[in-house]
Write a sequence for this structure.
């Protein structure tokens, strides 16, 4: 179960060189940790291939993990040493709106050579992440992301805690450089920008030695532009403990495959059951093949004796959804894309046919409108419960992400699903989510398949 050069499919589009701007040194603000987005290179492809030019926070991909205690403040001076304007979004943090990092909505994009101070409290424990939120299709694909881990006040009973960021890259099979056609119409109108090279934490042979019987906390984060990872466990017995940062009331036994859509996270507790000398695996299924997404060689026997079902993680504050029966009802119809039924939609106030939209490299509509508008999808009263029906009338899955507030899926008989910030919606499906509009400000609602967001699937909610 190893990824080899075979997997390196020939990339179709031509490689064009990245122009690297001069690095600038800027003064650090007192108390703020500098965080510099800058061009760099790293050995991403196997040895023998060239290093890949990337953009990374502090020059690495993934960026350095930020670890804080629940309730603490994060203070970062973002320094833009890129040749493009950028901003940082703290995905999943129920954050003050001005710190949400959405260029063009909550702040101006930070120009090259400029800085921005991010300063916010983290109310919830769990697994979060940060990534660029200007020209995201390009900037996230180039490597601008990292993990933001918020630790519970009382450390849970695990032997190890590992962050595993899964991603794919679209690399030229000869030069090992990123395909620089970030706006390819085919990606936009189909499943998004899928890579031909897959790795964990930027390492295609990701491996960590473990001991038999140890209980590991695996924090999985999907940072891919579009790929839905289909994962399973081998030589590990595990439970899902939290989705998108938010603890489950009861651990869920992992049985078979589970999907992880772009933007989503899952915290697993896993017990190593593979024998000493063997390996345990996090496995991804792709085109009928099982590949190692992460390998855990079992080098020794551990000392843990209890392997009971783990206790649930302590709940985060404000996990209630409120009164569903008197909730505000909203609908979001997703249409468009290849093999879709979208005949026409509004772009910049003008009604255009699908053919005209395609000419503008725009393909997807929410309620008949393409992309961001000056007016929000809805203006919500602070504290009201909202039920939002999301209808996927397209031929593709979408990963719908709401900024600023977590939601629960409303299931049959008004049963509520786990609290999440990103919903995986399959073609033809209709899902209903409910949330409390308790965080004032302008909050983006968009598909986390970043090519889709860039070609229409983006709107916002205004919480008064
Ligand atoms: Cu993870 Cu709008 O982003
Ligand atoms: Cu989408």
């Amino acid at each position: 179960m190893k990824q080899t050069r075979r997997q390196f499919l020939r990339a179709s589009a031509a490689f064009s060189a990245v122009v690297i701007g001069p690095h600038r040194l800027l003064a650090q603000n007192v108390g703020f940790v500098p965080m510099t987005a800058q061009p760099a290179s790293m050995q991403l492809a196997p040895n023998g291939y060239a290093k890949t030019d990337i953009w990374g926070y502090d020059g690495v991909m993934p960026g350095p993990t930020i670890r804080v205690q629940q309730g603490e403040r994060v203070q970062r001076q973002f320094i833009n040493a890129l040749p493009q304007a950028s901003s940082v979004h703290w995905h999943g943090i129920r954050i003050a709106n001005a710190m949400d990092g959405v260029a063009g909505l909550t702040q101006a994009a930070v120009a090259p050579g400029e800085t921005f101070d991010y300063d916010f409290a983290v109310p919830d424990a769990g697994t979060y992440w940060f990534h660029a939120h200007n020209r995201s299709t390009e900037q996230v694909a180039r490597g601008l992301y990292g993990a933001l881990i918020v630790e519970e006040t009382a450390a849970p009973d695990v032997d190890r805690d590992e962050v595993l960021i899964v991603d794919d890259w679209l690399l030229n099979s000869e030069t090992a450089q990123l395909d620089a056609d970030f706006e390819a119409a085919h990606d936009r109108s189909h499943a998004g920008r899928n890579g031909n090279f897959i790795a964990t934490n930027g390492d295609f042979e990701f491996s960590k030695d473990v001991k038999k019987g140890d209980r590991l906390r695996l924090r999985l984060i999907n940072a891919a532009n579009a790929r839905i990872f289909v994962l399973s466990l081998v030589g590990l017995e595990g439970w899902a403990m939290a989705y998108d940062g938010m603890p489950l009331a009861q651990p869920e036994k992992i049985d078979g495959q589970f999907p992880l859509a772009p933007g989503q996270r899952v915290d697993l507790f896993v017990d190593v059951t593979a024998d000493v000398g063997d390996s345990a695996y996090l496995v991804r299924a792709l085109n009928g093949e099982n590949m190692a997404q992460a390998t855990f060689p079992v080098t020794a026997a551990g000392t843990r004796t209890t392997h009971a079902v783990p206790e649930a993680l302590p709940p985060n504050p404000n996990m209630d959804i409120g009164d569903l029966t008197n909730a505000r009802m909203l609908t979001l119809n997703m249409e468009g894309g290849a093999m879709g039924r979208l005949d026409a939609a509004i772009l910049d106030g003008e009604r255009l046919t699908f053919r005209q939209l395609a000419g503008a490299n725009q393909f997807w509509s929410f309620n008949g409108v393409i992309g961001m508008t000056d007016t929000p999808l809805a203006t919500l009263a602070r504290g009201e419960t909202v039920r939002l029906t999301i209808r996927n009338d397209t031929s593709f899955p979408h990963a719908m992400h709401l900024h600023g507030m977590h939601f629960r899926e409303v299931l049959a008989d008004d049963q509520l699903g786990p609290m999440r910030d990103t919903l995986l919606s399959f073609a033809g499906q209709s899902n209903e989510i409910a949330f409390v509009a308790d965080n004032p400000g302008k909050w983006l609602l968009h598909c986390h398949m970043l090519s889709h967001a860039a070609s229409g699937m983006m709107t916002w909610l205004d919480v008064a």
Remarks:
- Residues 89, 91, 131, 133, 263, 401, 403, 444, 446, 448 surround CU-O-CU linkage (ligand 1) (CB under 6 Å).
- Confidence is low (pLDDT under 50) at residues 1-28.
- Helices lie at 136-141, 185-189, 354-359, 450-454.
- The chain has three domains: 5-151, 160-301, 328-463.
